[in-house]
Design brief:
Layout lengths: L3 H15 L1 H8 L1 H23 L13 H51 L6 H27 L3 H9 L1 H20 L8
Helix pairs in contact: 1-4, 1-5, 3-4, 4-5, 4-7, 5-6, 5-7
């Protein structure tokens, strides 16, 4: 069965990409949480001054310009620190984690569909099968190497667009093969 390799690959790749969730929670979210607490503290002090009509909470007189500038700077730096701490999490969550899970499930789905499709040319099912696997490796696989393992060369591969193009081509070919050769029962290749 040609689709078997997609099903196996899909489940194994899904384990890898789904594991990125606990990895982010364990290694990255504590830093992001600390940065958020620092931002809340810094912006909270500034908000207190603004809400008290720019009176210094300690002296109850108008706040000195240099102290207001210091509070503004601390708030801006706190916001920047939080953005910088969240960036790696967002990069993994929106890239290899989400796309990898989707492409793993696409491989499983196409593998199952290929088990029910008959093609006059047996190599056509192999082309569809390998198109999905290669597309996933060249897209989500490179996202993992780039975003998680910080391999700069992987971004060059991603920038070619080859992975998404192969996935789209695989979807088109699978749709055409299914339209012509879907049998409703498992096909022995």
């Amino acid at each position: 069965m040609v689709g078997k390799k997609n099903i196996v690959f899909g489940f194994l790749f899904l384990v890898l990409t789904a594991a990125l969730g606990p990895y982010m929670v364990k290694t990255m979210l504590p830093t992001a949480g600390e940065a958020q607490n620092a931002r809340v503290a810094a912006t909270g002090k500034l908000a207190e001054v603004v809400q008290s009509n720019y009176d210094d909470p300690e002296t109850l007189a108008k706040i000195a310009p240099d102290k207001l500038a210091q509070l503004n700077s601390a708030a801006i730096l706190g916001i920047n620190q939080q953005i910088n701490a969240r960036a790696p999490v967002d990069s993994i969550k929106g890239g290899p984690h989400a796309h990898g899970n989707l492409e793993a499930l696409l491989n499983i789905a196409v593998g199952i569909v290929l088990c029910f499709v008959s093609c006059k040319r047996a190599w056509m099912k192999q082309v569809i099968s390998w198109t999905f696997i290669l597309g996933t490796v060249l897209h989500s696989g490179m996202l993992i190497l780039g975003a998680v393992l910080d391999q700069a060369w992987a971004w060059q591969v991603i920038n070619t667009g080859a992975g998404p193009i192969l996935i789209l081509l695989g979807l088109l070919l699978a749709g055409m093969a299914t339209a012509v050769g879907f049998r409703g029962e498992i096909v022995r290749d």
